[in-house]
Amino acid sequence: MMDGAGGLNIKKWIVLYPVYINSKKTIAEGRRICATKACENPTCVEIGDCCSHLKLPFALEIDKAYPRDFMQVGRVRVLLKREDGTLLNPAIPTRKQLMLRVAELVPRHPGRTKKQEPASSSNAGPSKPGKGGRKKR
């Protein structure tokens, strides 16, 4: 059987909901790795970027929602193994490994890192002493 995704059957790919690696969620709400290893409110885009960093093919399914919490919209499909069963990234043999690696990478995502160091992107704020900054009295 052929399907429309250019010969790729993403139905067989594993599904990664952001909830799985969200440190703000409880196990009952769907978290699947321990809170200390999870990351805060990951997005599908961040997860997708982490997958491409790990050289894993992925597909964002923005129209899908997490069944336990339908406000959590979006999920990521990831391919771990080729058709012949060989791993695309030998360091990531299981979905559990994938969740742990992605959760580790998300906090270092470029979209996040610039929040901590405002000097690199936006110069608004009193980060530059010595220039201007003096009030006239």
UniProtKB/TrEMBL annotation:
The record describes its quaternary structure and partners as:
Component of a signal recognition particle complex that consists of a 7SL RNA molecule of 300 nucleotides and six protein subunits: SRP72, SRP68, SRP54, SRP19, SRP14 and SRP9.
Q: Could you list the residue ranges that cross the membrane?
A: none
- Biological function: Component of the signal recognition particle (SRP) complex, a ribonucleoprotein complex that mediates the cotranslational targeting of secretory and membrane proteins to the endoplasmic reticulum (ER). Binds directly to 7SL RNA. Mediates binding of SRP54 to the SRP complex.
* GO function term, MF aspect, one: 7S RNA binding
GO biological-process terms attached to the record:
SRP-dependent cotranslational protein targeting to membrane, signal sequence recognition
The organism encoding this protein is Rhizophora mucronata
**Which key words tag this protein in UniProt?**
Cytoplasm, Nucleus, Ribonucleoprotein, RNA-binding, Signal recognition particle
Its Gene Ontology cellular component terms are:
nucleolus; signal recognition particle, endoplasmic reticulum targeting
Q: What is this protein called?
A: Signal recognition particle 19 kDa protein
Which portions of the sequence form the region Disordered?
104-137
The principal location of this protein is: cytoplasm
What's this protein's family per the entry? Belongs to the SRP19 family.
Q: What is the lineage of its organism?
A: Eukaryota, Viridiplantae, Streptophyta, Embryophyta, Tracheophyta
